[in-house]
Design a protein that fits this description.
By secondary structure, the chain is mostly helical. The chain has 2 domains: 74 residues, Winged helix-like DNA-binding domain superfamily/Winged helix DNA-binding domain (Arc Repressor Mutant, subunit A, Orthogonal Bundle); 69 residues, no CATH class. It is built from 9 helices and 2 strands, in the order ααααββααααα. A two-stranded antiparallel ribbon has the order 1-2. A hairpin with a 7-residue loop joins strand 1 and strand 2. The longest helix is centred in the middle third of the chain and has 14 residues. The chain is globular, with a radius of gyration of 20 Å. It starts with 19 loop residues before the first helix and ends in a 14-residue tail after the last helix.
Amino acid sequence: MRYWIKGAPIASAAEFASCPIAASLGVLGRKWTMLVLRDMAMRKAERFSDLMRSIPGITPRALSMRLKELEQSGMIHRVDDQRSPRYVKWSLTDKGWDTLPILLSYVAFGSKWFAPAVFADGRPREMNRIYPQENLKPLYVNIEVDPEKIRRTLRKEGKLSAKQPSWTEK
């Protein structure tokens, strides 16, 4: 089969021994993990204290556990400073950097479907408007934003009142 049709099963050309999504979620699906990776990849948070400040609600114990799990899974590595045993930085490995397209997919989805919570003006945006850098474009899927279609979907779900939001006004 050369083409996939929306609503049809997606046929794989490879035989899976187990589900790659489930395997990935074994590490990436843990609470706080994606936010730790987000802050390391997108905000250059390298130290424990940086991560504590950048992730509201995370406890030191939870952060410590996530850092250990990410290190054991090969996503990050610990960099000890020779000058001080207390100065520790964390950095992404190549495997950790490979999560950037996943993170950017979350940005695309959230920017389209949760725009009122994401943006001050509540307007949905496409990725090429959020991250216009040319070298980032191969890393993300630009999900088309059709404000009218979003409005209809949210209204059907009961998440939008009968009055259309200002971002859909012409």
